[in-house]
Design goal:
- The chain is mainly alpha-helical.
- The chain has one domain.
- The chain is built from 6 helices and no strands.
- Helix 2 crosses helix 4 and helix 4 packs across helix 5.
- The longest helix has about 40 residues.
- The protein starts with a helix and ends with a helix.
- About 30% of the residues are buried.
């Protein structure tokens, strides 16, 4: 029973990451229910191998990322949905995988930004978005070229959190 719940949590996590990436690409918004779902599935994920110390350390990592993210959000460097999603994913990563998750997220986000800023990438993305339907840009995004960082967070989290399960 515990193994089935653990597997269900992992499948749910992967599905929520896919939704977060898609919605951030389509609307530059990560729905709050996605982040709440990631947080709600975390205790189910822990059922198989619960250790209080690891859970508390994961909460501390998530809080630290949230606090740093709030500062970046207040300065207009990142979106609020990105901060919330990365903090929720940090619960799953815990202290052992936190540095890898942050580094991989930054690398994927940088590559994504370069693609979006290139003329060919901008044309491709605009064409893809046109097929998904119009989505209004947030006010902050109108000042510059927005980057749907939820894609980077989602891809990095899937690689970091799910790869040990297949290794």
């Amino acid at each position: 029973m515990m193994h089935a719940l653990h597997d269900l949590a992992i499948v749910g996590f992967a599905g929520l990451m896919a939704v977060a990436a898609f919605e951030d690409f389509r609307r530059f918004t990560i729905p709050n229910w996605v982040t709440l779902g990631v947080c709600a599935l975390w205790p189910v994920y822990l059922l198989g191998a619960f250790h209080l110390n690891l859970a508390l350390a994961a909460l501390a990592c998530a809080f630290a990322v949230f606090a740093a993210g709030l500062l970046l959000f207040a300065r207009g460097y990142v979106g609020g949905g990105d901060v919330k999603l990365l903090s929720a994913v940090m619960l799953w990563a815990g202290p052992a995988a936190a540095p890898s998750l942050l580094l991989l997220t930054a690398l994927i986000g940088g590559v994504l930004a370069l693609i979006i800023l290139s003329p060919a990438g901008a044309y491709l993305i605009a064409g893809t978005r046109a097929h998904l339907g119009p989505a209004p840009l947030p006010a902050a995004a109108k000042a510059g070229t927005p980057v749907p960082y939820g894609i980077a967070i989602s891809v990095a989290s899937l690689l970091i959190i799910l790869s040990p399960l297949f290794g």
